[in-house]
Amino acid sequence: MEQQQKELRIGGKIDSKRLTDLEGEYVMAKNYKYKKATIADIDELVKTRIIVLRAANKLSNDVDMSLVEKESYEYYKRALETGEHIAYLVYDNGAFVGAGGVSFYQVMPTYHNPTGKKAYILNMYTAPEYRRHGIAIHTLDLLVKDVRKQGVSQIALETTEMGRPLYEKYGFVKIEDEMELIK
C-alpha cells in the first residue's frame, strides 16, 4: 500500500441524519450524468484508471504505464462481463468529469462476515475543476448502494489525504489491525 494512502472500511448501515446530510451535499451533482459503465465504455475506464494511478502515485506522463493499461483492459473486459466490477462514469454536457468503481471478491467466511463476500472501492476520481461539487460523494453513494444490493457488508478502500475527509464523512473508518506484504 502506498505510504500516503491508508485503508478505510465501512460496515453497518448509514444513519438517517448522515444520509440527509449527504443528500443535501450533492444537490449540485444532480446536473451531471452518472452512467453505469458497460463493455462499450472500456476505453474510457482504462484511460481513467491511468489518470487515477498517475495522480495517486504522483507519476509524470513520461512514466511507462503500457503494461498497466493492457492488464486493466483485460481486467475490465472480464470483470464487467461477470459482474465482479461495477463502475460509474460522470459527464457534464458530454465531457468526462469523474468516475468511481468497485470490485467484488470472496474470502473465507468469518464470524463477522459469514458469506466471505467483500467489496473494494477504487478509481474514485473527479477532474480538478469539478471538485467540491458533490460528484465524488454521489458516485460513492451509488457504488455503496450497488454493493449493498449484492448483500455485501464489508467495503474497503485506499485513500489519499485529499480524499480522506470525504470517506470519513460517509462513514468509513481507519483500520489498524491489518498488514500487507509489499514485495
Question: What does the model show?
Answer:
With 183 residues, the protein is α+β, with helices and mostly antiparallel strands. It has five helices and seven strands, in the order βαβααβββαβαβ. The chain has helices at residues 16-25, 42-56, 66-82, 135-149, 164-170; strands spanning 6-10, 33-36, 85-92, 95-106, 117-126, 154-159, 173-174. The protein has a seven-stranded mixed β-sheet with strand order 2-3-4-5-6-1-7, with helices on both faces. α4 (135-149) links the parallel β5 (117-126) and β6 (154-159). α2 crosses α3 (66-82). The longest helix has 17 residues, at 66-82. The chain is globular and about 45 Å long. The model is unreliable at 1-7 and 11-28 (pLDDT under 50).
| Residue-averaged pLDDT | 85
Number of helices: 5
Order of helices and strands: EHEHHEEEHEHE
Major β-sheet annotation: 7 strands, mixed
Q: How many strands in all?
A: 7
* Helical fraction: 25-40%
List low-pLDDT spans.
1-7, 11-28
Our Rg estimate from Cα atoms comes to 16 Å
How does the overall form come out from the CA principal axes?
globular
Distance between the amino and carboxyl termini: 10 Å
**What is the strand arrangement across the widest sheet?**
2-3-4-5-6-1-7
Which structural class matches the secondary elements? alpha+beta
Beta content? 25-35%
